[in-house]
Amino acid sequence: xxxxxxxxxxxKVWPSALSRxxxxxxxxxxxxxxxxxxxxxxxxxSKIWRLLRSNPSxxxxxxxxxxxxxxxxxxxxxxxxxxVRGRRGR
Length: 90
Hints:
Elements: E1 5-7, E2 13-15, E3 31-32, H1 34-41, H2 45-54, E4 62-64, E5 67-71, H3 72-88
Antiparallel strand pairs: 1-2, 3-5, 4-5
């Protein structure tokens, strides 16, 4: 199952109907659209595009068949790397 998100006029997104398995954990797609990445990180869509331009460590998207997707595992690695950099004081 995939996560669905609602995009608001202010550019903020949030999960509208997270799919849950019978055991309870939220299931996310492996390849995520920009709105899904924004919801996953809790930021606006425009912030994702700014991160892409300004932060060399932010994962590059995958472009295929006219769509832009991010690998969730790359996003997870970015989060973990950011935690480590934060602990070291950059």
